Amino acid sequence: MSLRALWIISHEKGEHASIRFSRRFATVELRAKRLSGSSYVAVPEDDCFLQLLLTELGLSGSKQAFVAQRDDCLYRPRSPALELHITAPGKGTLWPVLAISQAHLTLACLPLVDASPGQRPPLSSLLSESQGLSFLAGLQTFLLAPGSKQDGEGLVSRLALLPSVLLQVCPLGTPLELPLTGTLAMPSPLTSAGIQKQPAWRTGLYRGRAVVNVSVVETVRSMQYGNRSRQDLWDVYGTVACKCEVEGVLPNVTVTLSLPPNGSPLQDILVHPCVTSLDSSVLTASSVEHWDGSAFSGPYKFPFSPPLEPFILCSYTSQVPVPPILGSYQLKEEESQLHVSVVLKLHESVKNSFEYCEAHLPFYNRDQMGVVEVKVSSGQLDVSKEKNLLVWALGQKFPKTREVTMEGKILFSGPEPGPSEPLCTGLTAYIKLYFKVPDTTLSGCSVDQHSVQVYSSAKPRIVTSRELHSKDYWIWNSTVFSLPHNHKHKSPP
To answer: Has residue 190 been placed in a domain?
Structure first.
Protein backbone atom coordinates (compact mmCIF):
# COMPACT_ATOMS: atom_id res chain seq x y z
CA MET A 1 0.00 0.00 0.00
CA SER A 2 1.24 3.49 -0.91
CA LEU A 3 -0.04 6.99 -0.14
CA ARG A 4 -0.48 9.71 -2.73
CA ALA A 5 -0.92 12.42 -0.08
CA LEU A 6 -1.36 12.98 3.65
CA TRP A 7 -3.03 15.83 5.57
CA ILE A 8 -3.39 16.81 9.24
CA ILE A 9 -6.16 19.34 9.87
CA SER A 10 -7.21 21.19 13.01
CA HIS A 11 -10.69 22.69 13.23
CA GLU A 12 -13.24 24.09 15.69
CA LYS A 13 -16.65 23.21 14.26
CA GLY A 14 -15.45 24.35 10.88
CA GLU A 15 -14.22 27.71 12.18
CA HIS A 16 -10.54 28.62 11.94
CA ALA A 17 -9.87 25.33 10.18
CA SER A 18 -6.34 24.96 8.88
CA ILE A 19 -4.00 22.34 7.51
CA ARG A 20 -1.27 21.86 10.09
CA PHE A 21 0.73 19.45 7.96
CA SER A 22 0.57 18.02 4.45
CA ARG A 23 2.82 15.80 2.41
CA ARG A 24 2.59 14.65 -1.22
CA PHE A 25 4.60 11.75 -2.57
CA ALA A 26 5.66 12.43 -6.14
CA THR A 27 6.75 8.89 -6.99
CA VAL A 28 3.37 7.48 -5.90
CA GLU A 29 1.57 10.20 -7.86
CA LEU A 30 3.43 9.17 -11.01
CA ARG A 31 2.18 5.60 -10.51
CA ALA A 32 -1.36 6.88 -10.03
CA LYS A 33 -1.13 8.84 -13.27
CA ARG A 34 0.05 5.80 -15.21
CA LEU A 35 -2.64 3.55 -13.73
CA SER A 36 -5.49 6.00 -14.37
CA GLY A 37 -4.50 7.16 -17.85
CA SER A 38 -7.06 9.58 -19.28
CA SER A 39 -9.26 9.31 -16.15
CA TYR A 40 -6.49 10.61 -13.89
CA VAL A 41 -7.59 13.18 -11.29
CA ALA A 42 -4.79 15.21 -9.73
CA VAL A 43 -4.60 15.91 -6.02
CA PRO A 44 -5.95 19.48 -5.52
CA GLU A 45 -4.19 22.27 -3.66
CA ASP A 46 -4.41 22.25 0.11
CA ASP A 47 -6.97 25.08 0.37
CA CYS A 48 -9.27 23.40 -2.14
CA PHE A 49 -8.87 19.99 -0.48
CA LEU A 50 -9.61 21.49 2.95
CA GLN A 51 -12.93 22.99 1.86
CA LEU A 52 -14.00 19.83 0.05
CA LEU A 53 -13.21 17.60 3.02
CA LEU A 54 -14.88 19.85 5.61
CA THR A 55 -18.00 20.04 3.44
CA GLU A 56 -18.12 16.26 3.02
CA LEU A 57 -17.71 15.74 6.79
CA GLY A 58 -20.30 18.40 7.62
CA LEU A 59 -17.71 20.55 9.39
CA SER A 60 -17.58 23.45 6.94
CA GLY A 61 -19.57 25.79 9.19
CA SER A 62 -21.73 26.73 6.21
CA LYS A 63 -25.17 28.13 7.04
CA GLN A 64 -26.64 25.94 4.33
CA ALA A 65 -28.09 22.84 5.95
CA PHE A 66 -28.49 21.09 2.59
CA VAL A 67 -25.52 20.54 0.30
CA ALA A 68 -26.56 18.80 -2.91
CA GLN A 69 -23.28 16.98 -3.59
CA ARG A 70 -23.38 15.52 -0.07
CA ASP A 71 -27.04 15.29 1.00
CA ASP A 72 -28.85 14.41 -2.22
CA CYS A 73 -30.69 11.09 -1.94
CA LEU A 74 -29.02 9.86 -5.14
CA TYR A 75 -25.62 10.13 -3.47
CA ARG A 76 -24.66 6.94 -1.63
CA PRO A 77 -21.69 7.52 0.68
CA ARG A 78 -19.57 4.47 1.40
CA SER A 79 -17.82 5.29 4.64
CA PRO A 80 -14.96 5.38 5.46
CA ALA A 81 -13.92 5.89 1.81
CA LEU A 82 -15.06 9.45 1.04
CA GLU A 83 -15.65 10.97 -2.39
CA LEU A 84 -14.49 14.52 -3.02
CA HIS A 85 -15.99 16.09 -6.15
CA ILE A 86 -13.55 18.56 -7.69
CA THR A 87 -15.24 21.23 -9.83
CA ALA A 88 -12.43 23.28 -11.34
CA PRO A 89 -9.73 23.10 -12.44
CA GLY A 90 -9.28 19.43 -13.27
CA LYS A 91 -12.82 18.17 -12.78
CA GLY A 92 -13.26 14.69 -11.39
CA THR A 93 -13.80 12.62 -8.26
CA LEU A 94 -11.07 11.98 -5.75
CA TRP A 95 -11.56 8.50 -4.23
CA PRO A 96 -10.98 6.91 -1.76
CA VAL A 97 -10.13 9.66 0.73
CA LEU A 98 -9.74 8.14 4.21
CA ALA A 99 -10.28 10.35 7.26
CA ILE A 100 -10.42 9.83 11.03
CA SER A 101 -11.15 12.49 13.67
CA GLN A 102 -10.49 12.89 17.36
CA ALA A 103 -11.35 16.01 19.34
CA HIS A 104 -10.50 18.88 16.97
CA LEU A 105 -7.93 17.08 14.85
CA THR A 106 -8.66 15.25 11.58
CA LEU A 107 -6.14 13.05 9.77
CA ALA A 108 -6.73 12.23 6.11
CA CYS A 109 -4.87 10.37 3.41
CA LEU A 110 -5.35 9.34 -0.22
CA PRO A 111 -4.12 5.78 -0.80
CA LEU A 112 -3.18 4.49 -4.21
CA VAL A 113 -5.76 2.05 -5.59
CA ASP A 114 -4.30 -0.51 -7.93
CA ALA A 115 -7.25 -0.86 -10.31
CA SER A 116 -8.00 -0.30 -13.97
CA PRO A 117 -9.30 3.13 -15.03
CA GLY A 118 -13.01 3.56 -14.43
CA GLN A 119 -13.21 0.62 -12.03
CA ARG A 120 -14.17 0.99 -8.37
CA PRO A 121 -13.55 -2.30 -6.53
CA PRO A 122 -15.63 -3.19 -3.44
CA LEU A 123 -14.22 -1.68 -0.26
CA SER A 124 -13.94 -5.13 1.31
CA SER A 125 -11.45 -6.13 -1.39
CA LEU A 126 -9.20 -3.08 -0.97
CA LEU A 127 -6.19 -3.87 1.17
CA SER A 128 -5.05 -0.26 0.80
CA GLU A 129 -8.14 0.93 2.69
CA SER A 130 -7.56 -1.12 5.84
CA GLN A 131 -3.82 -0.42 5.78
CA GLY A 132 -4.45 3.29 5.25
CA LEU A 133 -6.81 3.43 8.24
CA SER A 134 -4.29 1.52 10.36
CA PHE A 135 -1.60 4.01 9.38
CA LEU A 136 -3.82 6.98 10.28
CA ALA A 137 -4.73 5.38 13.62
CA GLY A 138 -1.04 4.88 14.46
CA LEU A 139 -0.24 8.42 13.41
CA GLN A 140 -3.11 9.70 15.57
CA THR A 141 -1.70 7.80 18.56
CA PHE A 142 1.70 9.39 17.95
CA LEU A 143 0.30 12.93 17.71
CA LEU A 144 -2.16 12.75 20.59
CA ALA A 145 0.11 11.10 23.11
CA PRO A 146 -1.26 10.85 26.68
CA GLY A 147 -0.37 13.90 28.76
CA SER A 148 0.08 16.26 25.81
CA LYS A 149 -2.34 19.05 24.96
CA GLN A 150 -3.66 18.96 21.44
CA ASP A 151 -3.36 22.72 20.85
CA GLY A 152 -0.34 23.13 23.10
CA GLU A 153 3.34 22.58 22.87
CA GLY A 154 2.99 18.79 22.82
CA LEU A 155 1.20 18.74 19.46
CA VAL A 156 3.45 21.44 18.02
CA SER A 157 6.59 19.49 18.94
CA ARG A 158 5.23 16.27 17.45
CA LEU A 159 4.23 18.02 14.23
CA ALA A 160 7.78 19.36 14.02
CA LEU A 161 9.11 15.82 14.36
CA LEU A 162 6.70 14.40 11.78
CA PRO A 163 8.92 14.90 8.67
CA SER A 164 11.70 12.87 10.33
CA VAL A 165 9.23 10.26 11.56
CA LEU A 166 7.75 9.80 8.08
CA LEU A 167 11.24 9.16 6.71
CA GLN A 168 11.39 6.14 9.03
CA VAL A 169 7.88 4.74 8.79
CA CYS A 170 6.73 5.90 5.35
CA PRO A 171 9.67 6.33 2.97
CA LEU A 172 8.58 7.40 -0.51
CA GLY A 173 4.92 7.08 0.52
CA THR A 174 4.97 3.39 1.45
CA PRO A 175 4.28 2.75 5.18
CA LEU A 176 6.58 0.24 6.80
CA GLU A 177 5.13 0.19 10.34
CA LEU A 178 2.69 2.07 12.55
CA PRO A 179 4.02 5.18 14.34
CA LEU A 180 3.69 4.47 18.04
CA THR A 181 3.73 6.73 21.07
CA GLY A 182 7.11 6.80 22.76
CA THR A 183 9.01 4.64 20.29
CA LEU A 184 9.01 7.32 17.58
CA ALA A 185 8.82 10.45 19.69
CA MET A 186 12.46 11.21 18.80
CA PRO A 187 13.84 10.05 15.46
CA SER A 188 16.87 7.84 15.87
CA PRO A 189 19.22 6.29 13.34
CA LEU A 190 18.69 2.70 12.32
CA THR A 191 20.81 0.19 14.14
CA SER A 192 22.50 -2.75 12.50
CA ALA A 193 19.74 -4.99 13.82
CA GLY A 194 17.09 -2.75 12.29
CA ILE A 195 13.85 -1.59 13.85
CA GLN A 196 11.65 -4.24 15.42
CA LYS A 197 8.37 -4.02 13.55
CA GLN A 198 5.10 -3.82 15.40
CA PRO A 199 2.59 -6.44 14.17
CA ALA A 200 -0.80 -5.29 12.88
CA TRP A 201 -2.65 -6.95 15.78
CA ARG A 202 -0.61 -5.07 18.44
CA THR A 203 -1.45 -1.38 18.30
CA GLY A 204 0.50 -0.05 21.28
CA LEU A 205 2.83 -0.77 24.20
CA TYR A 206 1.81 -1.98 27.64
CA ARG A 207 3.29 -0.51 30.80
CA GLY A 208 2.52 -2.03 34.20
CA ARG A 209 2.36 -5.28 36.12
CA ALA A 210 2.58 -8.34 33.88
CA VAL A 211 -0.56 -10.52 33.94
CA VAL A 212 -1.57 -13.33 31.56
CA ASN A 213 -5.16 -14.58 31.72
CA VAL A 214 -6.21 -17.73 29.82
CA SER A 215 -9.78 -19.05 29.82
CA VAL A 216 -11.10 -22.23 28.18
CA VAL A 217 -14.85 -22.11 27.54
CA GLU A 218 -16.79 -25.02 26.04
CA THR A 219 -20.36 -24.89 24.78
CA VAL A 220 -22.37 -28.07 24.43
CA ARG A 221 -25.47 -28.47 22.26
CA SER A 222 -27.79 -31.45 22.34
CA MET A 223 -30.99 -32.71 20.72
CA GLN A 224 -32.40 -35.73 22.55
CA TYR A 225 -35.50 -37.61 21.38
CA GLY A 226 -35.58 -40.72 23.59
CA ASN A 227 -36.80 -42.64 20.57
CA ARG A 228 -35.08 -45.44 18.61
CA SER A 229 -36.41 -44.04 15.34
CA ARG A 230 -34.40 -40.85 15.79
CA GLN A 231 -30.77 -40.62 16.77
CA ASP A 232 -29.80 -38.24 19.55
CA LEU A 233 -27.35 -35.51 18.54
CA TRP A 234 -24.78 -33.47 20.46
CA ASP A 235 -21.59 -31.53 19.81
CA VAL A 236 -19.01 -29.51 21.72
CA TYR A 237 -17.47 -26.19 20.63
CA GLY A 238 -14.57 -24.70 22.58
CA THR A 239 -12.71 -21.39 22.61
CA VAL A 240 -9.50 -20.32 24.34
CA ALA A 241 -9.66 -16.63 25.28
CA CYS A 242 -6.55 -14.70 26.33
CA LYS A 243 -5.69 -11.33 27.76
CA CYS A 244 -1.95 -10.70 27.95
CA GLU A 245 -0.68 -7.58 29.69
CA VAL A 246 3.04 -7.97 29.04
CA GLU A 247 5.65 -5.30 28.41
CA GLY A 248 7.70 -5.20 25.22
CA VAL A 249 7.25 -4.53 21.52
CA LEU A 250 7.02 -8.22 20.60
CA PRO A 251 6.56 -10.28 23.77
CA ASN A 252 6.50 -14.04 23.28
CA VAL A 253 3.94 -16.19 25.06
CA THR A 254 3.28 -19.93 24.72
CA VAL A 255 0.02 -21.52 25.87
CA THR A 256 -0.25 -25.32 26.00
CA LEU A 257 -3.59 -27.16 25.95
CA SER A 258 -3.63 -30.63 27.42
CA LEU A 259 -6.16 -33.50 27.39
CA PRO A 260 -6.69 -36.40 29.79
CA PRO A 261 -5.17 -39.76 28.73
CA ASN A 262 -8.50 -41.04 27.37
CA GLY A 263 -9.63 -37.71 25.91
CA SER A 264 -10.78 -37.35 22.31
CA PRO A 265 -8.42 -35.28 20.10
CA LEU A 266 -9.41 -31.70 19.38
CA GLN A 267 -10.68 -31.08 15.86
CA ASP A 268 -11.45 -28.20 13.49
CA ILE A 269 -8.84 -26.01 15.19
CA LEU A 270 -8.72 -22.36 14.07
CA VAL A 271 -6.04 -20.00 15.41
CA HIS A 272 -5.59 -16.24 15.72
CA PRO A 273 -3.19 -14.59 13.22
CA CYS A 274 -0.82 -13.70 16.09
CA VAL A 275 0.19 -17.38 16.46
CA THR A 276 3.75 -17.50 15.12
CA SER A 277 4.15 -21.23 14.46
CA LEU A 278 2.10 -24.40 14.72
CA ASP A 279 2.54 -28.10 14.10
CA SER A 280 0.74 -28.96 10.86
CA SER A 281 -0.77 -32.07 12.46
CA VAL A 282 -2.76 -29.81 14.81
CA LEU A 283 -4.68 -28.31 11.90
CA THR A 284 -5.38 -31.49 9.91
CA ALA A 285 -7.97 -33.10 12.22
CA SER A 286 -11.50 -32.39 11.00
CA SER A 287 -14.83 -33.54 12.39
CA VAL A 288 -15.99 -34.15 8.80
CA GLU A 289 -13.46 -36.94 8.40
CA HIS A 290 -13.73 -40.25 10.21
CA TRP A 291 -11.33 -40.39 13.15
CA ASP A 292 -9.31 -43.61 13.10
CA GLY A 293 -7.51 -43.11 16.42
CA SER A 294 -4.25 -41.88 14.88
CA ALA A 295 -5.10 -38.18 15.13
CA PHE A 296 -2.84 -35.83 17.05
CA SER A 297 -3.95 -35.83 20.72
CA GLY A 298 -1.68 -33.17 22.14
CA PRO A 299 -0.27 -31.47 23.95
CA TYR A 300 -1.26 -28.50 21.78
CA LYS A 301 1.34 -25.70 21.91
CA PHE A 302 0.45 -22.20 20.67
CA PRO A 303 3.37 -19.73 20.60
CA PHE A 304 2.23 -16.19 19.83
CA SER A 305 2.90 -12.47 20.16
CA PRO A 306 -0.30 -11.21 21.81
CA PRO A 307 -2.31 -8.09 21.05
CA LEU A 308 -3.11 -5.72 23.91
CA GLU A 309 -6.86 -6.31 23.91
CA PRO A 310 -8.57 -9.60 24.87
CA PHE A 311 -8.71 -12.04 21.94
CA ILE A 312 -9.65 -15.61 21.00
CA LEU A 313 -6.40 -17.56 20.69
CA CYS A 314 -8.08 -20.57 19.09
CA SER A 315 -11.34 -22.43 18.69
CA TYR A 316 -12.00 -26.16 18.30
CA THR A 317 -14.59 -28.92 18.32
CA SER A 318 -14.56 -32.22 20.17
CA GLN A 319 -16.38 -35.52 19.76
CA VAL A 320 -17.40 -36.60 23.26
CA PRO A 321 -19.08 -40.01 23.73
CA VAL A 322 -22.16 -38.79 25.65
CA PRO A 323 -23.84 -35.48 26.50
CA PRO A 324 -23.39 -34.21 30.09
CA ILE A 325 -27.07 -34.58 31.05
CA LEU A 326 -29.23 -37.37 29.64
CA GLY A 327 -32.96 -36.77 29.77
CA SER A 328 -36.23 -38.62 29.38
CA TYR A 329 -39.43 -36.63 28.81
CA GLN A 330 -42.86 -38.26 28.51
CA LEU A 331 -46.27 -36.66 28.14
CA LYS A 332 -49.61 -38.44 28.13
CA GLU A 333 -52.88 -36.63 27.59
CA GLU A 334 -56.24 -37.48 29.14
CA GLU A 335 -59.09 -35.09 28.35
CA SER A 336 -57.82 -31.58 29.26
CA GLN A 337 -54.91 -32.60 31.48
CA LEU A 338 -51.38 -33.80 30.86
CA HIS A 339 -49.42 -36.41 32.80
CA VAL A 340 -45.79 -35.27 32.99
CA SER A 341 -42.82 -37.55 33.66
CA VAL A 342 -39.22 -36.32 33.51
CA VAL A 343 -35.93 -38.00 34.42
CA LEU A 344 -32.61 -36.13 34.21
CA LYS A 345 -29.34 -37.93 34.87
CA LEU A 346 -25.93 -36.26 35.20
CA HIS A 347 -23.17 -38.30 33.56
CA GLU A 348 -20.49 -39.58 35.91
CA SER A 349 -17.69 -37.87 33.98
CA VAL A 350 -19.15 -34.39 34.59
CA LYS A 351 -18.29 -32.43 37.71
CA ASN A 352 -21.32 -32.24 40.03
CA SER A 353 -20.98 -28.54 40.84
CA PHE A 354 -23.08 -26.04 38.89
CA GLU A 355 -23.15 -22.31 38.96
CA TYR A 356 -26.75 -22.67 37.87
CA CYS A 357 -28.93 -25.38 36.31
CA GLU A 358 -32.52 -24.91 35.14
CA ALA A 359 -35.01 -26.89 33.07
CA HIS A 360 -37.76 -24.98 31.26
CA LEU A 361 -40.94 -26.84 30.22
CA PRO A 362 -43.21 -24.68 28.04
CA PHE A 363 -46.66 -25.80 26.83
CA TYR A 364 -48.08 -24.27 23.66
CA ASN A 365 -51.42 -24.16 21.84
CA ARG A 366 -53.48 -24.84 24.97
CA ASP A 367 -55.59 -22.89 27.43
CA GLN A 368 -53.77 -21.33 30.35
CA MET A 369 -52.73 -23.61 33.20
CA GLY A 370 -55.27 -24.20 35.92
CA VAL A 371 -54.44 -26.82 38.53
CA VAL A 372 -50.76 -27.88 38.63
CA GLU A 373 -49.97 -30.96 40.72
CA VAL A 374 -46.34 -31.65 39.96
CA LYS A 375 -43.62 -32.81 42.37
CA VAL A 376 -39.85 -32.81 41.91
CA SER A 377 -37.32 -34.99 43.74
CA SER A 378 -34.77 -32.17 43.99
CA GLY A 379 -34.68 -28.42 43.49
CA GLN A 380 -37.56 -25.96 43.29
CA LEU A 381 -40.42 -25.63 40.81
CA ASP A 382 -41.76 -22.26 39.69
CA VAL A 383 -45.13 -22.18 37.85
CA SER A 384 -45.96 -19.35 35.45
CA LYS A 385 -49.60 -19.95 34.49
CA GLU A 386 -49.75 -16.87 32.24
CA LYS A 387 -46.88 -18.18 30.14
CA ASN A 388 -47.81 -21.88 30.46
CA LEU A 389 -44.27 -22.47 31.69
CA LEU A 390 -42.68 -24.65 34.37
CA VAL A 391 -39.21 -23.57 35.52
CA TRP A 392 -37.37 -26.26 37.41
CA ALA A 393 -34.40 -24.79 39.31
CA LEU A 394 -32.11 -27.72 40.03
CA GLY A 395 -29.65 -25.67 42.08
CA GLN A 396 -25.90 -26.19 42.22
CA LYS A 397 -25.74 -29.95 42.74
CA PHE A 398 -27.49 -33.11 41.68
CA PRO A 399 -28.12 -35.63 44.51
CA LYS A 400 -25.63 -38.43 45.13
CA THR A 401 -27.51 -40.67 42.71
CA ARG A 402 -26.93 -37.98 40.03
CA GLU A 403 -30.57 -38.40 39.04
CA VAL A 404 -33.60 -36.13 39.50
CA THR A 405 -37.24 -36.71 38.60
CA MET A 406 -40.45 -34.79 38.02
CA GLU A 407 -43.91 -36.38 38.16
CA GLY A 408 -47.40 -34.98 38.12
CA LYS A 409 -50.33 -33.66 36.13
CA ILE A 410 -51.38 -30.31 34.74
CA LEU A 411 -54.95 -29.20 34.10
CA PHE A 412 -55.35 -26.57 31.38
CA SER A 413 -58.56 -24.79 32.45
CA GLY A 414 -57.57 -21.12 32.41
CA PRO A 415 -59.92 -18.40 31.16
CA GLU A 416 -57.68 -17.40 28.25
CA PRO A 417 -55.57 -19.25 25.67
CA GLY A 418 -51.88 -19.57 26.36
CA PRO A 419 -49.00 -18.83 23.96
CA SER A 420 -48.96 -20.47 20.54
CA GLU A 421 -46.19 -22.10 18.52
CA PRO A 422 -46.80 -23.81 15.14
CA LEU A 423 -44.12 -26.45 15.79
CA CYS A 424 -45.44 -27.69 19.14
CA THR A 425 -48.87 -29.09 18.23
CA GLY A 426 -50.53 -31.99 19.99
CA LEU A 427 -48.04 -33.73 22.26
CA THR A 428 -45.00 -32.27 20.51
CA ALA A 429 -43.20 -30.59 23.42
CA TYR A 430 -39.70 -30.11 24.74
CA ILE A 431 -37.55 -29.34 27.76
CA LYS A 432 -34.77 -26.78 27.35
CA LEU A 433 -31.82 -26.99 29.76
CA TYR A 434 -29.71 -24.03 30.87
CA PHE A 435 -26.59 -24.71 32.91
CA LYS A 436 -23.05 -23.57 33.61
CA VAL A 437 -20.38 -25.73 35.22
CA PRO A 438 -17.26 -23.87 36.44
CA ASP A 439 -13.78 -25.37 36.51
CA THR A 440 -14.53 -28.14 34.02
CA THR A 441 -14.78 -28.92 30.31
CA LEU A 442 -16.58 -31.78 28.64
CA SER A 443 -13.57 -32.73 26.50
CA GLY A 444 -11.21 -32.49 29.50
CA CYS A 445 -9.22 -29.73 27.74
CA SER A 446 -7.35 -27.53 30.22
CA VAL A 447 -4.46 -25.10 30.59
CA ASP A 448 -2.10 -25.60 33.51
CA GLN A 449 -0.56 -22.45 34.99
CA HIS A 450 2.92 -23.95 34.82
CA SER A 451 2.52 -24.72 31.10
CA VAL A 452 2.10 -21.02 30.20
CA GLN A 453 5.50 -19.65 29.21
CA VAL A 454 6.13 -15.91 29.00
CA TYR A 455 9.44 -14.58 27.68
CA SER A 456 9.56 -11.19 29.37
CA SER A 457 11.83 -9.23 31.69
CA ALA A 458 9.18 -9.25 34.44
CA LYS A 459 7.71 -12.43 35.87
CA PRO A 460 3.96 -12.33 35.13
CA ARG A 461 1.05 -13.52 37.20
CA ILE A 462 -0.66 -16.41 35.41
CA VAL A 463 -4.43 -16.88 35.77
CA THR A 464 -6.21 -19.83 34.12
CA SER A 465 -9.85 -20.94 34.19
CA ARG A 466 -12.27 -23.20 32.35
CA GLU A 467 -16.04 -23.65 32.26
CA LEU A 468 -18.82 -25.48 30.46
CA HIS A 469 -22.00 -23.84 29.11
CA SER A 470 -25.17 -25.17 27.51
CA LYS A 471 -26.69 -23.78 24.35
CA ASP A 472 -29.65 -25.16 22.40
CA TYR A 473 -29.95 -28.11 24.76
CA TRP A 474 -33.31 -29.74 23.93
CA ILE A 475 -35.05 -32.87 25.25
CA TRP A 476 -38.16 -33.80 23.27
CA ASN A 477 -41.24 -35.69 24.38
CA SER A 478 -40.42 -39.30 23.54
CA THR A 479 -44.06 -40.39 23.22
CA VAL A 480 -44.30 -38.48 19.94
CA PHE A 481 -43.32 -40.93 17.22
CA SER A 482 -43.58 -38.54 14.27
CA LEU A 483 -41.99 -35.13 14.64
CA PRO A 484 -42.19 -32.55 11.81
CA HIS A 485 -39.51 -33.10 9.17
CA ASN A 486 -38.10 -29.59 9.64
CA HIS A 487 -37.57 -29.91 13.40
CA LYS A 488 -33.80 -30.10 12.99
CA HIS A 489 -33.66 -26.77 11.23
CA LYS A 490 -36.10 -24.71 13.23
CA SER A 491 -35.38 -23.99 16.88
CA PRO A 492 -38.38 -23.37 19.15
CA PRO A 493 -38.58 -19.95 20.78
So the answer is: no
